[in-house]
Give the backbone structure.
Amino acid sequence: MSKVHKILNSQPLTVKKNKNQPTKGVGNKEYIPEPYKKFARNMEAQFAEFMIEQMNKTVPGHAGKSSAMNIYKQLQNSQRAKVMSETGGGLGVQKVILDQVYPKRFRNKIMYENYLKQTKRHAANKAYQKGGVQ
């Protein structure tokens, strides 16, 4: 048996984590731009509203007898869904959506600052095109 096989078979391979390596901010919601958070929150609210509507269809006698009652129930479902998506971290759909539209590799200080610079530049260009800035 070679020396390499003896070493590999004798001890399990372990990777030591460097305690000095900064991990704060990587994958953190702190560095996700607000429009992305708002989009994910709204999508989760829409999903929750759809889910509530489907659940209500399974309850006998839940359908309103008048159009006013139906509108009221729709508003109530919409508010319930909004509260569900905004409190306690939501249903978990926001996290999935954010992972897709704004991956964790973009969630750092440098990318966030670049996003802010680009947004300011875009707003300035828009104002210039409208003739608001001389």
